[in-house]
């Protein structure tokens, strides 16, 4: 049985990854699962300087999901390289670093700094909905996506993945902009912009007003967008958004995703990624599938 997939030149032992912002830097979940079993770890989004993030409250439960407004809290790229990367180097797992800049120059600076041993890929975050600068402001403009991708590709030899926002009218155009800019793959979707209101105070729950919705509630939207992106580009697509079981993961792969990333489910079930991997294996055995790649893009549409 072959579970190995290739994403933009990056060979993964299986197609199950973690979604940035939901798995810390790996260390947080290392006590609960064997990190060596994962296809890849995508670490929490990094900025050039340490970032405190947004004021509380930062998370709010919704039916079948959650809103978050963390605001990219992180120790900064230098602290990651010094304190977190050595830990990850001890594991046999691909490490993909998510970067979030406020300017094109910041993205390029971090990508160049991370062009080092122990880092296997760079995920360009142009899709975060709960920061005031950068983030989704870049991701809704195909020209910005193209320019950021192009500049990052100039300074790194690592696999470059562009994380797309769902808060656009045509995801295919955005995916194509990333491909034209030289991206090795695209990942989608990030959280969907939403909000919540306290009816007693008649004020927004979050100081930023707008937050990001994730969890099972967004899966049908994510699945549709992954299908559209996979039809729009020739580069690999990494699918995510509400995956909480191996069946969910297989739906994304049948729709065209080369790999999948699990996010919010990690908060509910720290073992979710491992259960998804084992579930995919069992599905392959029951259906006499020797190679996971036979499933990818196998959707039958009349």
From TrEMBL:
Pathway: Pyrimidine metabolism; UMP biosynthesis via de novo pathway; orotate from (S)-dihydroorotate (NAD(+) route): step 1/1
Enzyme class of the recorded protein, top EC level: oxidoreductase
Gene3D superfamilies: Aldolase class I (3.20.20.70)
Organism: Thermoanaerobacter wiegelii Rt8.B1
Enzyme Commission number(s) of this protein: 1.3.-.-
Sequence positions that bind substrate: 44, 68-72, 125, 190-191
Reactions mediated catalytically: (S)-dihydroorotate + NAD(+) = orotate + NADH + H(+); (S)-dihydroorotate + A = orotate + AH2
Official protein name in the record: Dihydroorotate dehydrogenase
Ligand binding (FMN): 20, 44-45, 98, 125, 163, 189, 215, 241-242, 263-264
Keywords: Cytoplasm, Flavoprotein, FMN, NAD, Oxidoreductase, Pyrimidine biosynthesis
Domain Dihydroorotate dehydrogenase catalytic, first and last residues per copy: 3-284
Function comment: Catalyzes the conversion of dihydroorotate to orotate with NAD(+) as electron acceptor.
Active-site residues, Swiss-Prot/TrEMBL: 128
BP terms from Gene Ontology: 'de novo' pyrimidine nucleobase biosynthetic process; 'de novo' UMP biosynthetic process
Cellular localisation: Cytoplasm
Cofactor comment text: Binds 1 FMN per subunit.
């Amino acid at each position: 049985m072959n579970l190995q997939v290739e994403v933009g030149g990056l060979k993964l032992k299986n197609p199950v990854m973690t979604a940035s912002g939901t798995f810390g830097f790996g260390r947080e979940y290392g006590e609960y699962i064997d990190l060596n079993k994962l296809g890849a770890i995508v670490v929490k989004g990094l900025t050039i300087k340490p970032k405190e993030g947004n004021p509380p409250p930062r998370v709010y439960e919704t039916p079948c999901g959650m809103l978050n407004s963390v605001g990219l809290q992180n120790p900064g790229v230098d602290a990651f390289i010094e304190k977190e990367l050595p830990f990850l180097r001890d594991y046999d797992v691909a490490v993909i670093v998510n970067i979030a800049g406020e300017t094109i120059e910041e993205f390029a600076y971090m990508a160049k700094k991370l062009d080092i041993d122990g880092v296997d890929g760079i995920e360009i975050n142009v899709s975060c909905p709960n920061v005031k600068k950068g983030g989704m402001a870049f991701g809704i403009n195909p020209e910005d996506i193209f320019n950021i991708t192009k500049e990052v590709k100039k300074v790194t030899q690592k696999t470059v993945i562009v994380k797309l926002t769902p808060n656009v009218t045509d995801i295919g155009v955005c995916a194509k902009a990333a491909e034209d800019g030289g991206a090795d793959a695209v990942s989608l979707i990030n959280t969907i912009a939403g909000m919540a209101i306290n009816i007693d105070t008649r004020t927004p729950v979050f100081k930023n007003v707008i937050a990001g919705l994730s969890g099972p509630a967004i899966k049908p939207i994510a699945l549709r967008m992954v299908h559209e992106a996979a039809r729009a580009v020739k580069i690999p697509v990494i699918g995510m958004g509400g995956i909480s079981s191996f069946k969910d993961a297989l739906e994304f792969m049948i729709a065209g995703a080369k790999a999948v990333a699990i996010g919010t489910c990690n908060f509910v079930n720290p073992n979710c990624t491992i259960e998804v991997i084992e579930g995919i294996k069992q599905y392959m055995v029951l259906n006499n599938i020797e190679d996971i790649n036979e499933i990818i893009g196998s959707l039958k549409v009349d």
